[in-house]
Structure to design on (423 residues):
């Protein structure tokens, strides 16, 4: 299928293979690099699942560990193979997705073959798994020494009672010690099925050749994707405050506001756009509250916000450094209540809506961001390039309804990393 997006002078070609693998190609004439991403709808939150009638409860950090181990092949390491072609490969694990990608200026087909082969062909041994535990343990320890990461993990720990988003993506040194080749193989069978995956290419390539290679190098049949378990949905937060002490000169904080999960049939892309717009109106870098907090020296330039959607999860996060995170929390809470009761001025709404649209348009010239966004959208059955039409449907009432939800009692968690306690 070929879709044309006239307002951006762009097109997207797509097909779903017989095994369920979704393939997308976004041409970028004139770009020197081509970017490819192979992603699976499997992340750190997918630890508990049922496959073939058997329930599995896997260790925290299993998706991240599996990402590391996928680069191992019987005939060498995939990173070394990419190195010989001159490509730039990498991978990441989020709470809801694992993705493997590369960019290259030439030799695209050779690099795509490497990507497809190693992701669909697991190779786990007792020796290479044991070796990886030491490597990942070092990575975990480095993350544990990062104040902003501790604040980030803490805010989800405080917001969610049972949902596995309340634990770190990488797990802990203790949890990864339980990982075995058998557990990794089970997770690969459960979630690395072509029916649970997406291939997105952006740049200069031949779509027919991409499809031909995907058919040839992906499994002919797709295993049934496992059923996931996330616990009972609860509207209120588990803890209003999560406090940790580290060697910081100034407190680092993350403020989370728990939103309602997506309703059945609701567009994830549209909810994301409304959430980002509400966050920008509330405390974006040109919002009245941001200017006031900055003028009062309660926030710094590293203050940022993000709206996140995952299965049975939706939340807005604000974070950065502050001499008084509690004052920032109280001012944000008061502004939410004001917008919930008084509404948002039409002029402010229109200005911030244009700003959000501009940021989304900027993404169109960033192949990595474009592939990432399309992979996420495809898992929700949507197309990321539909954002323009969806923007036009968003009203000031949509934003106020979100503020009304945020204003409900016990929806807010403050995660703070404070300087060491004085003796």
């Amino acid at each position: 299928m070929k879709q044309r997006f006239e307002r951006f002078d762009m097109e997207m070609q797509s097909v779903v293979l017989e095994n369920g693998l979704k393939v997308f190609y976004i041409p970028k004439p004139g770009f020197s690099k081509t970017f490819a991403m192979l992603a699976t709808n499997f992340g750190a939150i997918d630890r508990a699942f049922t496959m073939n009638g058997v329930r599995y409860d896997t260790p925290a950090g299993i998706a991240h560990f599996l990402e590391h181990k996928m680069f191992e092949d019987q005939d060498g390491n995939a990173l070394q193979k990419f190195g010989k072609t001159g490509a730039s490969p990498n991978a990441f694990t989020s709470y809801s997705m694992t993705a493997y990608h590369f960019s290259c200026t030439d030799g695209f087909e050779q690099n795509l073959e490497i990507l497809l082969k190693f992701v669909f062909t697991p190779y786990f041994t007792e020796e290479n798994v044991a070796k990886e535990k030491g490597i990942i343990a070092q990575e975990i320890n480095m993350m544990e020494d990062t104040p902003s990461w501790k604040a980030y993990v803490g805010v989800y720990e405080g917001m969610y009672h049972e949902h596995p988003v309340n634990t770190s993506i990488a797990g802990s040194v203790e949890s990864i010690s339980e990982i075995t080749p058998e557990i990794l193989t089970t997770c690969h069978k459960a979630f690395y099925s072509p029916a649970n995956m997406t291939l997105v290419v952006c740049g200069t390539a031949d779509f027919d050749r991409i499809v031909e290679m995907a058919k040839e190098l992906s499994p002919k049949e797709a295993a049934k994707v496992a059923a996931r378990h996330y616990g009972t949905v609860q509207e209120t937060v588990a803890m209003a405050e999560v406090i940790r002490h580290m060697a910081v000169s100034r407190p680092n904080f993350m403020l989370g506001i728990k939103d309602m999960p997506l309703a059945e049939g609701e567009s994830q892309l549209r909810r994301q756009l409304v959430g980002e717009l509400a966050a920008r109106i509330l405390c974006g870098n040109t919002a009245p509250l941001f200017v006031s907090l900055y003028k009062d020296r309660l926030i710094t330039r590293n203050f940022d916000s993000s709206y996140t959607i995952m299965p049975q999860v939706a939340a807005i996060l604000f974070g950065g450094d502050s001499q008084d995170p509690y004052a920032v929390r109280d001012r944000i809470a008061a502004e939410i209540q004001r917008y919930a009761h008084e509404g948002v001025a039409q002029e402010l709404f229109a200005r911030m809506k244009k700003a959000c649209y501009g940021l989304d348009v900027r993404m169109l010239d960033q192949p990595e961001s474009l592939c990432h966004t399309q992979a996420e959208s495809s898992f929700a059955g949507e197309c990321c390039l539909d954002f323009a039409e969806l923007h036009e449907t968003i009203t000031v009432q949509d934003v106020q309804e979100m503020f009304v939800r945020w204003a409900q009692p016990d929806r807010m968690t403050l995660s703070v990393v404070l300087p060491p306690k004085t003796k």
Summary: Residues 126-144 form the longest helix (19 residues). The first strand starts at residue 2 and ends at 5.
